[in-house]
Amino acid sequence: MMGDIVAQFDTPEARWAGVGPYYAMFPARFADSVVERFTEDGDTIIDPFAGRGTSLFSAATKGRHALGVEINPVGWVYAATKLCPARRTSIEARAEELGEMAGRFGKSATRMPRFYRHCFSESVLAFLLAARKHLDWRASRVDRTLMAIILIDLHGKRELAFSNQMRQTKCMSPEYALRWWKEHGMSPPKREPVAFVKKKIAWRYARGTPSTLESRVYLADCTHRLPGLHTVSSRLAPKGARLLLTSPPYFGVTNYHYDQWLRLWMLGGPELPRSSGERHRGRFQHPEHYRELLVSAFMEAKPLLAKDAVVYVRTDRRRMTSAITREVLKEVFPKHDLRRRPRPLNGLTQTRLFGNGAPDDGEVDLVLTPN
Ligand SMILES: C[S@@+](CC[C@H](N)C(=O)[O-])C[C@H]1O[C@@H](n2cnc3c(N)ncnc32)[C@H](O)[C@@H]1O
């Protein structure tokens, strides 16, 4: 059994595929099987709702080009990192620099809201504040890779994370967390932050980094960004991408921003969680807005695809999401045949985390092939 667990992580791909905890992520094996079945070496795949970049990573590590867009900075940091991680020695050196800078953040740490002082020890909080201020994760590969490694274990099981006990995938509200820690008499773990982060780096890099074919993921709203991808897309795929593999946000299920509020704080967001009122960032409550997002995303992606491209969409099986998605796909790709493949739940998916356990919880694959 122990041997199996070790074997699961004996390649660089296996170690990097897990970057990082994110909702509704595709199981890596699922992405691998779709990429292998529908594309060949040198082809390009597109994912307009890339999340943590599972489909992109799978394509890029299998000799395909990958092009993606993701609106949530947490997903984007993970996706961009695993497509192109920085050198181990560079991020170790950067972690040490942050450790030195952390000394200047001791006072700020004591002034943070109560939640933070119960979530992190003082030295960890000072280190995180230094990382938040100094890591230029948008522009620097080294800083982004280090930020990704910090984000993965920002919260999680107390023995394994920077934080007091917390779920790794979803950050609880400050009030709930404070109440829970008090009831269970739990305090933040004492850690030497630089040594802790170096341990995480050592594990991630122990088998090296995966080799990937040239690929890109953009931090943006796909409905705005896709039209600008023509140049890069026609360079990578002169005849168009062969596969669009994606999973759009599900109607009425989650708000990727609220549930990731602590990681978003690390990336410069507000100190306390709030629902974003911004379009395409909130929970989808209006069928018309949801429909518009899907129409716009698939319409903008279509010109980047080859005529005989396959469109593979995994989505929520519940009525509203699957009905709207089906309708939109038929409208945007009238010359494709659409097959519906229901699938049982496996692993932690959005519907399992948020669903009400109703028999229609689960996911469905909508597969469009040229007719
Ligand atoms: C179901 S998740 C995709 C998960 C992904 N398959 C993975 O393996 O991580 C849907 C993603 O769409 C993103 N999203 C929502 N609206 C978007 C938009 N307008 N443009 C780009 N991404 C968007 C969400 O932030 C979320 O990460």
Topology overview:
Layout: H1 2-8, H2 12-17, H3 28-38, E1 44-47, H4 54-60, E2 65-70, H5 73-83, H6 88-102, H7 106-110, H8 114-119, H9 122-134, H10 141-152, H11 174-183, H12 193-205, E3 216-219, H13 222-225, H14 230-236, E4 241-246, H15 261-266, H16 287-301, E5 305-316, H17 319-332, E6 336-343, H18 350-354, E7 363-370
Parallel strand pairs: 1-2, 1-4, 2-3, 4-5
Antiparallel strand pairs: 5-7, 6-7
The chain binds S-adenosylmethionine.
Radius of gyration: 21 Å
Average residue-wise pLDDT: 91
Helix and strand sequence: HHHEHEHHHHHHHHEHHEHHEHEHE
Task: State the helix count.
Answer: 18
How widely separated are the two ends?
46 Å
Specify the oligomeric state.
single chain
- Biggest sheet, strands in spatial order? 3-2-1-4-5-7-6
Structural class: alpha/beta
How much of the sequence lies in strands comes to: 5-15%
> Would you count the extended β strands for me?
7
Notes on the protein architecture:
This protein is of the alpha/beta class. It has two domains: 2-79 and 216-251 and 287-370, Rossmann fold, CATH 3.40.50; 88-205, no CATH class. Helix content is 45%, strand content 13%. It contains 18 helices and seven strands. The chain has helices at 2-8, 12-17, 28-38, 54-60, 73-83, 88-102, 106-110, 114-119, 122-134, 141-152, 174-183, 193-205, 222-225, 230-236, 261-266, 287-301, 319-332, 350-354, and strands spanning 44-47, 65-70, 216-219, 241-246, 305-316, 336-343, 363-370. A seven-stranded mixed beta sheet has the order 3-2-1-4-5-7-6, with helices on both faces. Helix 3 packs across helix 4, helix 5 (73-83) crosses helix 10 (141-152) and helix 16 runs parallel beside helix 17 (319-332). The longest helix has 15 residues, at 88-102.
